[in-house]
């Protein structure tokens, strides 16, 4: 769901940061980042080194195989004024589900991850790109491995924030025997590991949400999560919520109570009254007739097709005439659905 629709759903409560996912070979700044910066959001760009030609690729990344794609992104960013962007490469590297995961086999291992991370950082630094780097763990290692988070630490000079992703998956496919967990129960062990990496680096939540399970109150889980973020974990500075229903769980806000709980959390614990200039999308309507305006009612994201080959995705290329912004922006956010809304927590 795009930001104007999400904030409409939340009754005007603002979030501060948009998280976008982009595959390395189609990683274009005008399509994925510019439009959100123009609207007044911070952007976390998740760089996904997905490649159909290889199963594992940490060694290729470290050797510079994908550098041309990164340089193209940087050049487009600098041409637009070199505004601050947070870069999150090689996320959830402590698992086996991505080609860059250190448990994925092949030539992937922890030393090669560190080499790949440091190489990506050097590429951005070489062009003096205005970026910050988020080191993003999964809150639990894959394969029930007990290797400490310190093993993946690439060095303080290469990291601006550390985050991890964790969900309450109780009862979801493959997790039928897992018991319901509060956010605090789920996150606390990983928080302790992240805090031990460096005494001053800011910490955050890369992705989080909860499923819906009979007998449990999702709205209360959301309220408790916001309160825990603000009180139990003093070094937290950012929390990204994954709000999209998928086959493995109903992660979005799916009732008036859940929407109210999330809105209340944003209003109570995060900066508001921000100078945002949202694109003038057509308002959401209850497309599926369930009585709730949420992500299930959102139109699909515009397609990233530069029809006139001018280097940006213009409103006329992605929106019907009736939905075109009244003040046309120079670039329209495109590509993967915007399922992640990040809240910058008040210190």
UniProtKB/TrEMBL annotation:
Keywords: Glycosidase, Hydrolase
GH26 domain residues: 1-262
Name of the protein in its database record: Glycoside hydrolase superfamily
Domain of life: Eukaryota
Record GO biological process: substituted mannan metabolic process
Annotated spans, Disordered: 322-347
Compositional bias annotation for Low complexity: 323-347
